[in-house]
Amino acid sequence: MKAQRGMTLLEVLVALVVFALAGLALLQTTALQASGIGRMEEKVLANWLADNQQVQLRLDKVWPEKSWSGKSVTFAGEEWYLRWRGVDTEISQLRALDVEVRRKKEDTAALISLRSYVVRE
């Protein structure tokens, strides 16, 4: 008569622990990826807003002031705060234009800062 072979209770428990740890690692990785995607979407939207503001100032032929100007806008169903200013360069007819985008006016750090240059006509 053949002896029946099977897994012991200890082997089953070890296998369950291994699968549980693998499941937790997978869950943590998925959560990190989801939050990263949300952050990336926020950065892309902020970049579009900064770019749009720079284009609008160019179309309006505005010579950027050296002090900060700002406004709140609604974009993609969310409120955003934009601010911009001119920065002198070594060439008097050329001024840097810095645009920053924040979620709220009170936020200490900008989500995105974008610099371009404007030529005085």
Automatic annotation (TrEMBL):
Recorded coiled-coil stretches: none
Top-level taxonomic group: Bacteria
Domain Type II secretion system protein GspI C-terminal: 40-118
Post-translational modification comment from the UniProt entry: Cleaved by prepilin peptidase.
UniProt membrane topology term: Single-pass membrane protein
Cellular component, GO, one term: type II protein secretion system complex
Pfam family, one: T2SSI
UniProt keyword terms in alphabetical order: Cell inner membrane, Cell membrane, Membrane, Methylation, Transmembrane, Transmembrane helix
GO biological-process terms attached to the record: protein secretion by the type II secretion system
Residue stretches spanning the membrane: none
Record localization: Cell inner membrane
Keyword field contains Thylakoid: no
InterPro entries: N_methyl_site, Pilin-like, T2SS_GspI_C, T2SS_protein-GspI
Function in brief: Component of the type II secretion system required for the energy-dependent secretion of extracellular factors such as proteases and toxins from the periplasm. Part of the pseudopilus tip complex that is critical for the recognition and binding of secretion substrates.
SUBUNIT field: Type II secretion is composed of four main components: the outer membrane complex, the inner membrane complex, the cytoplasmic secretion ATPase and the periplasm-spanning pseudopilus.
Family assignment from sequence similarity: Belongs to the GSP I family.
Protein name per its UniProtKB record: Type II secretion system protein I
Species name: Serratia oryzae
